[in-house]
């Protein structure tokens, strides 16, 4: 019994496709085996913490936030394996320190960022693995704040703006650039360079119908400088340390 040519060619084409498919399946055995990993972040500290992934500390990128973990809690995060299987991924811990509560701001609590020396977590994340990492409680003197802060109470007869050179600062609680009259209080953040711990402030002013300069002062990380503005009169700063663990 003889096969006709069409049947013969059809059989050859089928065999050809079969071998190509089998070959591709063998050459890429891991295509379907890369699975997400799980990291359990346990926050042993007394602070709420934000955890960022692969962030450049000098150029803060809030979009790299992985999770927020409350004190004494564990947050489970599902994450893709490390692209770099040699150096892995780095997680940056930011402790949230209370600057002012809702009674002081009239709106909401304000928390500011601090970090603990050597608190970054680096690990190579492997497919389908589970990890647990602990966020430790800082020891006294270990917290390093990211920026400096000012507090302004307006007891004058008109609303004001707080200007740094010619740029209006935004209040930390509501992002408003106006500080109303009637003993209202505004809290403001002053960014410091990654390498500098002190910044000379000599171009800070309160603006209503005209500018009134604040006294010149040096601002340091983790300190709060409190002023009272009464129309054209601005007091010298009262300085307080924000570190609740200070010696």
The major pleated sheet works out as: 6 strands, antiparallel
- CATH first level of the largest domain: Mainly Beta
Helix content: 10-25%
Tell me the count of domains: 2
Helix-strand category = mainly beta
Morphology: elongated
Percent of residues in beta strands: 35-45%
From the alpha carbons, calculate the radius of gyration and give it in angstroms.
29 Å
- In N-to-C order, the SSE pattern is HEEEEEHEEEEEEEEEEEEEEE
- The termini sit apart by 99 Å
Please tell me the CATH architecture of the largest domain by its name. Sandwich
Number of helices: 2
Mean pLDDT: 88
- Which regions contain 5 or more consecutive residues with pLDDT less than 50? 19-29
Give the total of beta strands: 20
**CATH fold-level topology of the largest domain:** Immunoglobulin-like
